Amino acid sequence: MKSAAAIIESGARHIVRRLRDAGFAAYFAGGCVRDKILGLAPKDYDVATDARPEVVQRMFEHTIAVGARFGSIAVILDGAQYEITTFRADAEYTDGRRPSAVRFGTIEEDAKRRDFTIGGMFFDPETDRLIDLVGGMRDLRAGIIRAIGNPAERFAEDRLRILRGARFAARFGFEIDPATWNAMREAAPSITEIAHERIGDEMVRLMTEGGAGRAMDLLRECGLWAALAPELLEMIGCAQPENYHPEGDVWSHTRMAVSMLPAGCSETVAFGILLHDIAKPRCRAVDSDGKVTFYGHTDQGAVIAAGIMARFKRSNFVQERVAYLVRDHLRLCMAPRMRKATLKRMLADDGFGELMQVAMLDALASSSYLGYWNFCRRALASMSAREIHPPRLLTGSDLIELGLAPGPLFKEILKEAEDLQLDGAIATREQAIAWLHAHYLPQAN
Ligand code: ATP
Ligand code: MG
Description:
CATH class of the domain at 1-139: Alpha Beta
Radius of gyration: 28 Å
CATH superfamily of the domain at 1-139: Beta Polymerase, domain 2
Number of helices: 23
Oligomer: single chain
Bound molecules: adenosine-5'-triphosphate, magnesium ion
Structural class: alpha+beta
Low-confidence stretches: none
CATH topology of the domain at 1-139: Beta Polymerase, domain 2
Distance between the termini: 78 Å
């Protein structure tokens, strides 16, 4: 059976064949060429051609005019999406300064409008010929990220490229060419001139595609954290008690935890761990006997973390989930001492699986003590979903039927009943009603 990667590659080959049969030039382009040379399976294929977008649209049955104005048509083939882009002469200006129409051009011009050499190559899948007009192969061999053309001009055209450069360096473990790096540093303070949605999308990719620890460093050295989330820099030099944190200050601890994030992790886990101790610097205090404390850092951290995710224009779900992960990241440690009802409520939280991931990374980047983590894992494994989150024995209408007047007490009664149920003290509706009679209902005499 063909693998998924082989199926999407044969779709891309088919598109190239169809365009050529119609008399056009067509090549694989950009990231997929780079990935193939690196021996990685491209996650999608871009095809570059001299056929105009309207022609491409007519040639294929299922198309979406994703960026027709900019020369891009998406073709859907066997459920996979391919981007077919007409050779362009214009660079990309994508922050409201986009030219209203692009100028189409030659393959040479199209290579030059791309951002980095390693992503600026073309490949002929029928002859296995690489078309490298920008020195991409040399840089790929040497492991170098280098802007195509004049780096300062390229970053001025589209500042998103600063983040893209950092992302590729982090993901592939490449060095950044000195001239490109200098231009990145100079342009970094103006990163906020582009749409924050674009920044947010790129930040997520930086943190979830592998090499997130290195990404943290590059963003720091480049001045991007200073421009985008200066709160992170406060972690540098924020000293912690050595017995708990032999690895060093809050930055080093976070850096170590983040560097263990696997490629393909969720953005909420990635930002949850990146921001889990974000408020420690603000909450740091030394009490009278010299003990360093960080009281309140989880609650304050949740607020700061949600603010950063909002700044990156992430969804409400993401903001809330990251806030939860930061707020509750120390709760797992209390699990062995929790009353059963409290433990079950924690295990039933929607984000608990992700909280476990964050807690694991946090532990591995400090004491490596996983006793409480294993306690939670065992608790989860030993109980059914129904045991953890059973259907309620009583509802508000039961209380009314039994003669209680609706009011604020209802919530309390229902919570208490649920506590008893989760603790295992009551198990049936009859027992719940008997308990209600004993505690809340006027005794009949
Ligand atoms: P990834 O693996 O992350 O998809 P990629 O190199 O394929 O990496 P895409 O964002 O998919 O990146 O873009 C496809 C190609 O389009 C890139 O290889 C690059 O040549 C070009 N490109 C994308 N964004 C820009 C940009 N902002 N400026 C210039 N060229 C760009
Ligand atoms: Mg791509």
